[in-house]
């Protein structure tokens, strides 16, 4: 036996908290022991078997089959291994990850990849607001790893991001890359208003239409050809709209000067 397959029995009446259901926690357990793992449901806890049929799988890691839109914290604090979700997931997907790989074949809710520190989170559909940002009450956003969103992203994508790469192949909402400290945010589609608001450092790359630039950003004078080739090559390996970035000319703006920032907006045309 290499892994586990959890098939959804039915949609729960309340939201379910799946923290702790990660490959490392299930290693060495029997089917019966996994079925009796307790998960949060409303203001109580219930056995995992209440919602899922558990079966051994020839594939490594953990696979969820079904629509998990009411299931939150999938991959919460995951440190290794692989989780695959065949449908949508709820809020906090991949939040506080430090390693491993979480692949979502559908869309994700709010706060995906918040305070992610390592590993890979790949979302085939859309993602809600505050992805790659901070957990409520915290000051630090995403701090490592890679987030790939093949669809659209909501507002405040990459808010207070400190390190890592966060890519959106489609459009993003307002305040993308707001209050960034470091790291790279790359956007393949259209960006909403106030991109880079109050950013201090880091790179915000626009592979699609250039948004309106805030007057608190100024055009860069110094060339950055070598740095751009390295950054573009790193982004190009993810394919799609980013595949040909190295062949594009760029225009850079520095700021946000209102926050004494030294970040950069890079428009690749």
Overview of the structural elements:
With 269 residues, the protein is mainly β. The protein has one domain: Pectate Lyase C-like. 8% of the residues lie in helices and 30% in strands. It has three helices and 17 strands. It has helices at residues 23-26, 31-35, 225-236, and strands at residues 3-8, 16-17, 38-41, 44-47, 52-57, 61-65, 71-72, 82-85, 98-104, 117-123, 143-149, 163-168, 184-187, 203-206, 218-219, 250-255, 263-268. The longest helix is centred in the C-terminal third of the chain and has 12 residues, at 225-236.
Count, helices:
3
Structural class: mainly beta
Total beta-strand segments = 17
Strand order of the largest sheet: 5-1-6-8-9-10-11-12-13-14-17-16-15
The low-confidence parts are none
Shape: elongated
Write the CATH architecture name.
3 Solenoid
Instruction: Give the tally of structural domains.
Output: 1
CATH superfamily: Glutamate synthase, alpha subunit, C-terminal domain
CATH class reads: Mainly Beta
Largest sheet: 13 strands, mixed
Percent of residues in helices comes to under 10%
Order of helices and strands: EEHHEEEEEEEEEEEEEHEE
Instruction: Write down the Rg.
Output: 19 Å
Beta content comes to 25-35%
**Separation, N- and C-terminal Cα atoms:** 50 Å
Average pLDDT taken over every residue: 97
Looking at the structure, the CATH topology is Pectate Lyase C-like
């Amino acid at each position: 036996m290499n892994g586990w397959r959890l098939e959804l029995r039915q949609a729960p009446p309340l939201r379910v908290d799946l923290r702790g259901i990660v490959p490392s926690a299930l290693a060495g357990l029997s089917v019966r022991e996994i079925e009796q793992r307790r998960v949060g449901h409303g203001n109580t806890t219930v056995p995992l078997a209440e919602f899922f049929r558990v079966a051994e799988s020839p594939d490594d890691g953990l696979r969820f089959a079904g629509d998990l839109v009411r299931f939150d914290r999938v991959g919460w604090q995951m440190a290794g291994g692989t989780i695959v979700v065949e449908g949508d997931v709820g809020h906090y997907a991949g939040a506080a990850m430090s390693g491993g790989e979480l692949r979502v074949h559908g869309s994700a809710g709010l706060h995906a990849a918040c305070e992610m520190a390592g590993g890979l989170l790949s979302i085939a559909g859309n993602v809600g607001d505050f992805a790659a940002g901070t957990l409520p009450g915290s000051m630090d956003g995403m701090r490592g790893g890679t987030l790939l969103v093949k669809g659209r992203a909501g507002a405040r994508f990459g808010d207070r991001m400190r390190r890592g790469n966060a890519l959106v192949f489609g459009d993003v909402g307002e305040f993308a890359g707001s209050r960034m400290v470091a790291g790279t945010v790359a956007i393949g589609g259209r960006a909403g208003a106030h991109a880079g608001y109050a950013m201090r450092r880091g790179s915000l790359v626009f592979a699609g239409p250039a948004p309106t630039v805030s007057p608190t950003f100024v055009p860069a004078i110094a060339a950055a050809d070598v740095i751009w080739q390295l950054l573009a090559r790193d982004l190009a390996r993810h394919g799609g709209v980013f595949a040909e970035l190295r062949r594009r000319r760029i225009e850079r703006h520095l700021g946000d000067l209102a926050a004494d920032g030294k970040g950069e907006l890079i428009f690749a045309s």
